[in-house]
Amino acid sequence: MGVIAAGIAPHPPIILPEVGRGEQEKAGKTVEAMHIFARRLAEVNGDTLVIITPHGPMFRNAVAILAENRLQGDFSGFLAPQVQLQADNDLELVRAIAAESSKAGVETVLLGGEGVEIGEKLDLDHGVTVPLYYLQKAGTGNRCVAITYALLPYRELYNFGRSIKKAAEGLQRRIVVVASSDLSHRLIRGAPAGFHPRAKEFDRLLVNYLENYQVEKILTMDGELIQAAGECGLRSIAVLLGCLDGEAVQPELLSYEGPFGVGYAVALLTPQRKEGGYSDGKNS
User: Which stretches does DSSP call E strand in the chain?
Assistant: First the structure.
């Protein structure tokens, strides 16, 4: 029990046909990879889907976890209100994650439901709903936990990921973990965050580290390079890597492209039980 499958998915709403209205064809590699990604994760028949997002309610020093009984979201903000998603929240797992995280010294905040009310509607953000759209189309993701990372150091987020793993193992829950993660937002002139000449370097290095499962290199990427990239998902990936602590992992890059100036990587990280710490693909 514990983490039985994991992966990294981008979250541009434009890759949904109802939102893209033909424009999604410009990201055809990503769309095709997302179908494969979702099908492969559905095949493992997990108990609960855990998605780490950069776009939900965020705190600097505390990881936010939605605690509503029923999770829901739509794409009305992207002119497609007819696309609505719902999932049952795994509140038992939510509470267990919070408890394990507290033991590890990483603070969490439970939002809505039995948690803290913050005075606004707690719909799922597009960092969750875009991958969830594909996963539910493939037949999985009907029970879900939605987590927004905190602006903590990468190693602390890695430790939080270990808490997710421990919580799942303690409940004998078979979970699938997805890091919702766009890479650089500055690949081309006219990109959403402007252009930076080092943006492609960030994406090239991160994709290479993922393909070779070089965990230490991901956790210690150069801060100036990260800032230059304008990314919004490296912390999601740090949490995911912590969820895979103690596993030998088979990485598989399904696609990478950046047609709109934002890097989209779709990858599977398949765990194979291994004693000890994380497995670094290069043994470096």
Answer: 2-9, 48-53, 62-66, 70-75, 80-89, 107-111, 143-148, 174-180, 247-257, 264-273
* CA atoms of 29 and 160, how far apart (whole Å): 32
Place of tokens 């539910």: 136
Residue 283 has pLDDT above 60, yes or no: no
Q: What pLDDT was estimated at residue 118?
A: 63
The continuous run of DSSP H or E covering 264 comes out as: strand 264-273
- Closest residue by Cα to residue 235 from 180, 278, 277, 193: 180
3 state SS of 248: strand
- If you search the block for the tokens 């890091």, which residue do you land on? 179
This prediction has a pTM of: 0.94
Tokens of 142: 């009907």
Structure tokens at 105: 């010294």
Domain residue limits, the chain: 2-273
Is residue 117 predicted with pLDDT exceeding 80? no
pLDDT for 102 beyond 60: yes
CATH number, domain 2-273 = 3.40.830.10
Give the pLDDT confidence score for residue 116 in this predicted structure: 72
239 and 165 Cβ atoms separated by less than 8 Å: no
